[in-house]
UniProtKB/TrEMBL annotation:
GO molecular function annotations of the record: oxidoreductase activity
Record keywords: Membrane, Signal, Transmembrane, Transmembrane helix
Zinc recorded as keyword: no
Name of the protein described by the UniProt record: ER-bound oxygenase mpaB/mpaB'/Rubber oxygenase catalytic domain-containing protein
TM region positions: 230-248, 254-270
Span of the signal peptide: 1-17
Coiled-coil residue spans: none
Lineage: Eukaryota, Metazoa, Ecdysozoa, Arthropoda, Hexapoda
Keyword Signal (UniProt): yes
Length: 280
């Protein structure tokens, strides 16, 4: 689960480099300062978690509440951006956003600490994962012709690779606004995970695309990057990986519980008002 959450946020950072997405984020002004990004992207984290753990057979489950919230917020942001003349959030953009949640899991699983099963088990898991996100995409009104999740893993991986290539080009030529917003998002998430280093995480995101992060890393960022690489490596080691994944699953659960019930660090540094989390 931790690997899936990490890859999702790396993907969300990557798609910010898309000019249309960047313009909308610049316009909404909700991704510029940590006290705002903490609340906004903590909610994003919790919504991702809810999608994975909620019961789809229960019509009153948080999964459907999360889908409604995502749809409502995207619609509001799109309308505001269109009225401002910067362009809205279109179905194509929603399809690209799908990449954030499935892309690295399908095309670079080892880089995020996944892929230690047999080939048959991996393909079976991939098919189930793709089906899940295909349904989510359908619920978010992404047309089948634009849905990144196809009917088989091979076709979906091929599409993900094409999207990754496009993102690589944008990331290589990313404007200053990209780094400003990405830094603000990661600064906000630091109040959830104090081990998070923005430059190390951006380096990790760039590595997933096979390109160099074009900022100089300090000693702590380099150490932090090596720590995250080590964790991903250990997840792939037989037997050891199971223990590491179990440990970080517990860490994730505790982190999410604390951020909902007792976000003490955010309270102290941002104030209770700026630390309020409201999912629904």
């Amino acid at each position: 689960m931790m690997s899936m959450i990490v890859s999702s946020f790396a993907g969300l950072l990557a798609i910010i480099a898309v000019p249309e997405t960047l313009r909308v984020l610049v316009h909404t002004k909700k991704s510029y300062i940590p006290c705002v990004t903490f609340s906004r992207y903590t909610q994003t984290l919790l919504h991702i978690y809810k999608l994975y753990i909620s019961d789809p057979d229960d019509p009153n489950s948080d999964l459907y509440k999360t889908i409604n919230v995502i749809h409502r917020k995207h619609k509001a942001s799109s309308k505001s951006s269109e009225n401002a003349g910067v362009g809205g959030i279109y179905k194509r953009d929603m399809a690209i956003t799908q990449f954030a949640f499935i892309g690295y899991i399908l095309i670079a699983p080892k880089s995020i600490g996944l892929c230690n099963k047999s080939r048959e088990e991996e393909e079976e898991a991939a098919e189930a994962f793709i089906h899940f996100w295909r349904v989510i995409g359908h619920m978010l009104q992404i047309p089948d012709r634009l849905n990144l999740c196809r009917k088989n893993a091979a076709e979906t991986r091929e599409l993900c690779k094409k999207v990754a290539d496009v993102l690589t080009k944008y990331m290589n030529d990313a404007p200053p606004e990209f780094y400003h917003i990405a830094s603000a998002i990661l600064d906000g998430l630091w109040y959830i995970d104090i081990t998070l280093d923005k430059h190390a995480f951006l380096k990790f995101t760039y590595q997933l695309h096979g390109i160099e992060y074009n900022k100089q890393l300090g000693w702590y960022s380099r150490l932090n990057a090596k720590y995250r690489d080590l964790v991903c490596y250990l997840c792939l080691v037989p037997y050891v990986g199971a223990i590491v994944r179990l440990y970080y699953k517990a860490v994730l659960w505790l982190t999410l519980w604390l951020v909902v019930k007792w976000p003490i660090l955010a309270w102290l540094l941002l104030g209770k008002k700026n630390s309020h989390i409201k999912l629904y």
